[in-house]
Each structure stands twice: as structure tokens, then as C-alpha cells.
Amino acid sequence: MCMTKKKSTSWHLFLGKTLLLMAVSLSLSLPVLSVSETSWQSYSKAANMAFDQGQASSAEDLYRKALAEAKKHKAQPLDIAHCLNALAATLCLQDKTEEARKLYEQSLLLMETAVGKNNPQIVQTMLDLGSVYESEGNHKAAMSLYNRVFAINQRAFGADNVETGKALHRMAKVAHASEKQKDAQAYYKKAVDTLAGSGSKRDLEACLLDYQRLLKDINDSEEARLVIEKLSEISSQRQMQRSVVGTPDANDNSSSFWQLHLSKSSINQQNIQTNEEQNVLGRAQESVSSPSSMTPMYNTLADVYNKQNRYNEAEPLYKTIIAIDEKSLGSDHPSVGADLNNLAALYISQKRYDEAEPLLKRSLTIYQNAYGNDNLLVIKTKSLLASVLNKKGSLADAQALYKNVLDTGLTNFGPNNLETAKALNNLAYFYYQQGKYTEAETTYKWAIASIEAIVGDNDPMYAACLSDYVQVLRKLGKLDEVQKIEQRISSISTKRIEQ
């Protein structure tokens, strides 16, 4: 392994290892190009199986045999390159990067001779080799490769393509590691614009997180604030699309009318995706790709199984997603937080609250470190954790969290905001469950006023909150008020039917 001329920071060493892990998963998924299966292909398949089972040493031996057989029988250059890449990726995983680098360099020369120096087919090998250069501290060599990748992708796919943006992202990270802060910021800005235009929120989020670290190093607090806002928006959109965090269990008899209303709204939104999800179930049987590139499909497939109550099939998929994102993005990445929340939600639907609690606590820490305490995802995760603590009987901790969420909502969003209304309803229903009917009555009055300001007094959401409030009034013996409010609820329902 080459010695670095300059000592890397702990972050850049971590980054280098992350890049190598990504290179491993991508290299092992390169397609076999020969039509008929030969001995080298048999060795390669056996090596893939050993690698999938975590037997890196056995995989290495089998890949070496595959490479030897491919050379012996004078296989096509691209087939030999495939063997070189697979062996190199396995060596990287075992920190044998010096030999891996030489193999990637051989592979790149073979591929350039076979298809040309500007062919998109050589890009993945260039990225893998660049990752090795980065791990060794050879930033100049890595930047040279990434510049070529950027030029190839821009020419082949266009300026606003996700692959072009990812190349810019790599260039920005190398410039940052080389302490060329101005160059790094310029690359990051271009990468952010390109990835935003490409529509790939996952890649945009990864870029913004790295950009945030640069901004912290150069003390650009204003730009960092804008980046945090964009990160928060992306994460919130992802969670809203999955409808996982903060969604109550519609089959749970302990849910309030308000919670059930939100749950049904979420389910109706999910049903729009039914046709696509059934297609995913089919495609998942046919797709052959790298673990990291499969994460979106794993997510959709797991969500489908979850909604179909196929929990035993959903759980291992959610766990696989967590493992993949931890390796490729790092254990403190917000995407890992989202993954943890998804698994926690699965456990909650099965009333496995003891298993859900630590996942939510870890997710909460990730979000707080990434976005701060006032972020929407932090608020939603606290709400869900409070619900779990309530179900477990940890009432003091649950009440403290519910109050904290409410205080944060009032401070950051004001009283007439849906998140504040949710917090008021959750706290009011908590009081009702604990028999604290006076506190529940007061809190429900605030909640009703908040919801009315948001959606008006003829909306089903408003009626759902009134229905919960009626239960409190019954307990307090205020039957005259109950009768008036029930008439109001009936009037809202009638109007909705007539519409």
C-alpha cells in the first residue's frame, strides 16, 4: 500500500474506506460479457457466492482462478477486465489496496484499448481506481480520473444528468481533501445544481451533506444554513412519500379519531402507488445489480410487504437496507436514520415496542446531529418515540417528549401549523389516556383552534378532533356540550356526503 505524502484527516480516511466499499459492490455487479459459460465464468460465479456469504478470502482465491482461466483461454479483453475488477474489489475489502490498484490500472488499459478512452463503459473502472487513489492519499491522480469521468459523462449523458453530477461531487470531495477550499466550493455548487436538475434526491442529499462539512471547515455559516434547509426539505419529502414516520397504526384500538383520520389519509395516498409496487415485485425477481444501487427497489419492495402485512418478508429487507446504507454512506448518515425509522415502524405495527425504541433513539440522534433540534424530522421522530414509550408504560418519558415536541412546534412553526396541531392532539390524547381529563380538555381546545385556523371548520380533520374532544367531555360529565358538538360533527359529515 502506498504511503501518503500528507497525513489525512480521520474524516477523509473514513471517506476513502466508504468509497472502497462502494467500489466493491459496483465492481462485483459488472455483467459477464461472453455468451457461453466457460470455466472462468464458473469460477467467477462461485466467487460471487462466496463473497455474498462474507467469505472474502475464499472469494479472492476463486477470482484469482477465474482470472487465470480467462487469460489462459485468451478470453475477450472486456472479460479479462471483469475478472481483474472483481479481484481488485475483493482485495480492497481486505485492505490489500496496493495490489488492487495495480489490477484496476491493468483493467483500465485493457478497456481503453478495447473500446476507446472516451467510452462510458470505462467509467466504473475509473471510479473504482479513483477510490483507491483517494484511500492512498493520491488526490492528484484521483482528480485526473474524475475530470475524465466528468467529461465522458457530460458528453454521453448531458450536463444535467445524475452521473455528471456525481462526477462533480467526487471532484469536490477530492479538492476538499487536498485543502483546495475554493475549488471544492465551486465544484460543490455545480454538483448541487446538476443533481438538483437530475431529480436524484438521494445523490443530491449525499452531495449536500459533504458540502455541509466543507462549509463548516471554512466557517461559511450562511451558506451552511441554506444547505441544512435543503437537506431538511429532501428528508421530509422522502418520509412523507413513504408515510412511515409518525403514522399511527390504523388497526390499533388505542388510536384517537384524529390519528385514525391521518392514518387513512396516508393509506389513500399510498394506494396511488399500487400498480407501480406490483411491478416492483416482479422486477425484483429479475434485477441483477449492486447492493447500493438496489436500495430504492429494496425500500419499495419492503414497503409493499409491510402494507400487505407480510412482516416476515419485509423485516430482512429493511435490515439489508440499513446494512447497505451504513457501508456506503456511513452509520451517521440521515438516510440510515430513515432506514431505522422504517424498521421501527414495522416493529410498531407488530407491537414489538421494545425493539422499536432503540432504533428510534438512534435515528433521533442521527437527525439531531445532522439537522439540529428544530428540524421537522427530529420532531416527527420524537413524536413516534413518545408514542412507543407511552405504549410501553414509560409515561413520564413519553409526556416529556410530547411536551418537547409541542414547545418546538410552537417556537418554530407557530400555533396555526399542522405540526403544532399534531403535537397538541397527541398530548391531549395522552392526557385522556392517563385520566387527566381537565388537562386533556384544555389541550384539546387549543388543538381545535389550531386545526380550525389551518383547514377551516368543515374539514374531516376538524371533525376528527371534535370527536376526540367529545370523549373527554363525556368523562367530565359535560353532556350538554357533548350534544352540541356531536350535532356539529354530524353536520360536517352530511356536508361532505352531499359534496
Task: Please sum up the structure shown.
This protein is an all-alpha fold and 499 residues long. The protein has 23 helices and no strands. 80% of the residues lie in helices and 0% in strands.
The termini sit apart by 72 Å
CATH superfamily of the domain at 12-137: Tetratricopeptide repeat domain
The value of Rg in angstroms is 27 Å
Architecture (CATH level 2) name of the domain at 12-137:
Alpha Horseshoe
Sheet of most strands: none
Structural class: mainly alpha
Order of helices and strands: HHHHHHHHHHHHHHHHHHHHHHH
Task: Using the coordinates shown, work out and report the CATH topology of the domain at 12-137.
Answer: Serine Threonine Protein Phosphatase 5, Tetratricopeptide repeat
| Residues in helices, as a percent range | over 70%
Low-confidence stretches: 1-36, 240-251, 266-297
Shape summary: elongated
Number of strands: 0
Number of helices: 23
Q: Which CATH top level class of the domain at 12-137 fits?
A: Mainly Alpha
Strand content: under 5%
Mean pLDDT, to the nearest integer, reads 78
